[in-house]
Amino acid sequence: MAAQSSPSRRRFLLGGLGLGVAGVGALVLGWGVLPPRQRLHGSAPLPLHDGAVALNGWLAIQSDGTVLLAMPRSEMGQGVHTALPMLVAEELDVPLNSVKLIQAPMDKIFGNVAMLKDSLPFHPDDQGRLKALAQWTVAKAARELGVIVTGGSSSVKDGWGPMREAGASARAMLLQAAAALWQVPAAQCRTENGDVLHPDGRRASYASLAQRAAAIDPGTPVLKLPKDFKLIGQPAPRRDTPSKVNGSARFGIDARPPGMLYAALHLPPRLGDTLSAFDAAPILAMPGVKKVLDLTPQLAQRSVSCAAVVADTWWRARQAAAALPTQWKAGPQANLSSAGVYAEFARLLDSEAGYAYHASGEVESKAVQGLRSVKAEYRAPFLAHAAMEPVNCTAQVKNGKVMLWVSTQAPGIAVDVAAKVAGVDAQDVSIEVLLLGGGFGRRLEVDMVAQAVAIALQCDGAPVQLVWTREQDTKHDMYRPAALARFAARLDEHGRIASWDNKSVSGSITHQYLQRNFGLPGAGPDKTTAEGEFDMPYEIANQRIAHVIADSAVPVGYWRSVGHSHNAFFKESFIDELAHAAGQDGIAFRRAMLTQHPRHLAVLDAAVARAGSAPPGHAHGVALHQSFGSIVAQVAQVSVENGEIRVQRVVCAIDCGIAVNPNIIAQQMESAVLFGLSAALGGEITFQEGKVEQGNFHDYPVLRMGQTPEVETIIIASAEHPEGVGEPGTPPIAPAVANAVFTLTGKRLRSLPLRLA
Q1: Residues paired with 653 in a beta bridge
Q2: Dihedral of the CA atoms 411, 416, 420, 426 (nearest 10)?
Q3: How far out from the chain centre does Cα 573 lie?
Q4: Is the pTM of this model over 0.90?
């Protein structure tokens, strides 16, 4: 679809939004007093053909009754191409299988409002006016930005309002069209399975009414009450499963435009190295090689310095790129090491107070100073994303136009960066978003898009597919930040937590992401660094949670569950330490601090009850964590066999608000647990002399089938607004396993990955 975005306006608004988030204040712009931008009608008609009739900016009716739904969110295995059509089908009263997806155009109504709104660093228990004002302002700004992006477990949460309204609005238009045709009151008519019906037996299909309905103003959409739901809440099967089973599903790497060439990269051996020279002659003499290119001058901050080889097959391009003789100028990270990173973290924790994200009471009051003190330090490593589909992008630059075929989480940002690299207007960039073979945050980045466009610019109008190798993907990722956290707590004479002081340090993802992708300087606090620490539900009177941002020489990016992924390990492990120090059971210890949090208590109790007792030779570990609006408790059944940690069973309870599709929620909990276990038991990226030491799955392992535990999911019934599902299952698994290991061995593991040796 051709882009309709305005990069300069986006940068201006995003800069203002960033200041608003950093200061937790209002975004003061002239439009602030106006109503928020509507999300029902686009700025241009939907791109339709074959007589389809649009009823609003989201959906249209074809002549055969098929509903065309504009889909702005990327499918990367999380099931949104099933869950989101359910919202529309429910309100429109059509069968789910009658909804066909088309790619949404680059229009502001499809921007992800919920994801930006959730970036505000407020405690979940905060019900104050400042929070309400900040959320309203950021949501309004997000509507103006209109950034189309998939992430933050926000797709269903964001679509819950506008997509249901689109279905309800269209249904009202069709119902009124039938009433006018039959000259009866609309209140006498009802809808069912794509038809409008009257009590006297008359029936009209949506297809026959669409043209007449398109001219009707439906007024304010009236949404169904939960008691009237027929689809929402039902375990519908995934719509993308058949094509993935029979091989017809198209991922980014499956793009095959006519005349396509292939490209492979020669990337720097160390972080920060710059390509200074290469010898193209021997490479150009190799079979099938078309071009050898230095991409560094074209890419600026959008990519590492690199060369590319273009050939008639990818294997030839890869072999030639690997053989390219190059010379590199060492960068400032030439001596970077993991040990040096943690040493700098320790120095910062010693010397910096950090930004306090949450404070209540006084952690150093006279009343607590004489009480028993417990201290601990935890750390987590850098992590790669390791998605199964390698990083790739196919691009064509021809006649002043750019065409992209790419599996991306951020099509709007991809369009903007392609326009900048090609030197064209964003309106001259078209994009086809294909299925993602895993994203986990890596495909929020657009470095591969910039690289592919830079290559295509020099290929005389031919489309070019760029594919990274697995080793390149591992060694040149935007990694989950490493982190170091210190805790100091005091226990009173009853074994209750009297004070809690937590300070952590890591690099800032948001600072780097804004600079890489928008050219904006990172400033102020970054919620992702401290989320999962400052927003815990436990009722502790005196607490202070702070974070220190370290200038990271390592490129860092969003990773499934972001800061929660390691902060949950820190927080829930230390809670268990305190329970042990107090001589109490970890479950009872938590329950006593949740007297004002009944939803959290219900989730914890449900998981514990289902788990039962651990069999002989095994132990249960428990963790409770809230992230992306959802509350998850996990009980891990663990054994230690020949010095190795084995997880046999995980019981996972979740309260995510209204469960749109329980089947998908269970799948996502299973996926998140296994993803988190891979990191907990083996995930670690280390640096020595500026180089990443891992390269492939032999030294950056993911969980194998034989290591996979049974995962049981309990979905707590709720009438609350739907919350996130894709990520909340990941954070609790590492501390649950670590807590079980302590019960088995008496050894407290405070570093990830979890190793007994």
Answers
A1: 633, 714
A2: 110
A3: 24
A4: yes
CA neighbor of 582 nearest in space, from 377, 738, 374: 374
Q: pLDDT-based confidence at 384, cuts 50/70/90?
A: very high
The span from the CA of 591 to the CA of 313, in Å, is: 60
Task: Answer whether 691's CB lies under 8 Å from 579's CB.
Answer: no
Which of 414, 376, 390 is closest to 473 using CA atoms?
Answer: 390
> Rounded to whole angstroms, how far apart are CA atoms 701 and 556?
20
The reported pLDDT for the residue numbered 522 is 85
CA distance 398 to 459: 9
Distance from C-alpha of 271 to C-alpha of 306, rounded to nearest angstrom:
12
* Bridge partners (DSSP) listed for residue 376: 487
Mean pLDDT of 132-156: 95
Phi then psi dihedrals of residue 203, to 5 deg? -145, 140
Residues 6+ apart with CB under 8 A from 23: 524
**Can you give the pLDDT at residue 32?**
63
Q: State the Cα–Cα distance between residues 396 and 63, nearest whole angstrom.
A: 34
CB of 232 closer than 8 Å to CB of 721: no
What confidence category does residue 523 fall into, taking pLDDT thresholds of 50, 70 and 90? confident
- The CA distances from residue 591 to 79, 180, 600, 605, 680, in Å, are 33, 59, 9, 9, 25
